[in-house]
Amino acid sequence: MRLKGNLKKHGVTILIDFSSTHNFLNPSLAKQCGCPVTTTTQFQVTVADGGVISSSGKCSHVPVNIQGFQFHLDFFLLPPLAILDRGIFKRNNCPVTKLLVQWQGQSKEEATWEECSKFAARFPSFQLADKLPS
């Protein structure tokens, strides 16, 4: 089931699976909403299609508004699935390398641009050298 809702005043689409035991959030949306991220031990959960999603970050007690009702939910951060592209962008007239990241459980169209250095720090076990497009 898909519902429209708000996560800290940001409009979001919420996917509800009544058999799920955990909530997941795109790390870029967590950053955009200012949700504090707590590093956790590697956490794995089997999803409906039989695949396994692992996460090492959590946002706790996040206010979510769904159809006028407010909930405070915990979210595990979606892990990266693939690096689709890389690019050099200017910020304050200085070059910044960014990666186009597809997150597990999301389509390529939902990929987000992430700063390479911050991505590498957040996901140290993700082998960037093997995943970067040439």
TrEMBL record:
Matches recorded under InterPro entries: Chromo-like_dom_sf, Peptidase_aspartic_dom_sf
SUPFAM superfamilies: Chromo domain-like (SSF54160)
One protein family per Pfam: RVP_2
Gene3D superfamilies on file: Acid Proteases (2.40.70.10)
Protein name (Swiss-Prot/TrEMBL): Chromo domain-containing protein
Annotated source species: Citrus x changshan-huyou
